[in-house]
Amino acid sequence: MLEARDITVRYGSRTVLDRVTLAVEPGSVLGLGGPSGCGKSTLARVMAMMLRPRSGTVTVDGRTTPGWRQRAPRDLRIRVALVYQQPRLAVDPRLTLTEIVAEPLAAAGRPDPARVSSLATEVGLTPDLLTRKPHEVSDGQLQRACVARALTLSPRYLICDEMTTMLDASTQAHLVAVINAYRAQTGAGILAISHDTDLLTRWADHTSSLGAAQAGEA
Ligand SMILES: Nc1ncnc2c1ncn2[C@@H]1O[C@H](COP(=O)(O)OP(=O)(O)OP(=O)(O)O)[C@@H](O)[C@H]1O
Fold it and tell me: Known SMART domains for this protein (predicted)?
């Protein structure tokens, strides 16, 4: 289970999350909705151990992270992958799509071109696209690369933060299908964050909502 417990986050004097608790079960899709600005992306970053909360804990399969960002143990961090809403802000513009997909494997010191190639095929990237750089492809094509990149190290949990909001319906359907297949094969747990209640109803086994009250002043 990926569990956030009693998470409180403040930006300056503003409390964005106030003792929020949320758990993602292995093998299931938890949908998380809530109004714009209520703190969904903030919670996603905390659960991926990329943002240190003011208080609260994140536990991955029974292990509570002792630190955040680089201070979280690497083997714990790579259990949780995050796909962002805006792929252009999530990639190095100098890299080709192949290099983007391969990044986590390269960083781990174990390049695996066969895995990169099979993930690229799964997400629907053709060989001609793989040699291009981000400015030469569409948002949908780039997001396909970001989904493949998120799966390279076989995370136990995948957080999709408004992953398909900027995409056309067919790319959205394809990427949701890829993630569902990954979940079925591996038993991974998915946190699907979206303000699109139709998408969450179709995709998630359970849904939860961060209330507007979370966005109050401290
Ligand atoms: N680094 C930051 N510094 C200060 N305020 C921030 C920071 N990041 C987010 N905020 C503010 O915190 C609030 C919650 O932001 P967050 O992105 O987590 O909400 P959200 O529910 O994901 O919103 P949306 O659905 O619009 O993406 C917003 O008011 C946002 O402006």
Answer: AAA (SM00382)
pLDDT for 166 equals 81
Structural domain range at position 96: 2-215
Q: How many domains does the chain have?
A: 1
Q: What is the ipTM of this complex?
A: 0.95
Say what the pLDDT of residue 162 is: 93
C-beta 45 within 6 A of ligand 1: no
pLDDT for the residue numbered 218: 37
List the one residue out of 55, 30, 59, 36 whose CA is nearest residue 47.
Answer: 59
Q: Report CA(109)–ligand 1 centroid distance (Å).
A: 34
Q: What is the CATH number of the domain that holds 63?
A: 3.40.50.300
Tokens standing for residue 156? 């136990």
Range 188-216 average pLDDT: 84
- Answer whether 211 contacts ligand 1 (Cβ < 6 A): no
Tell me, in angstroms, the distance from the centre of ligand 1 to residue 213's CA: 14
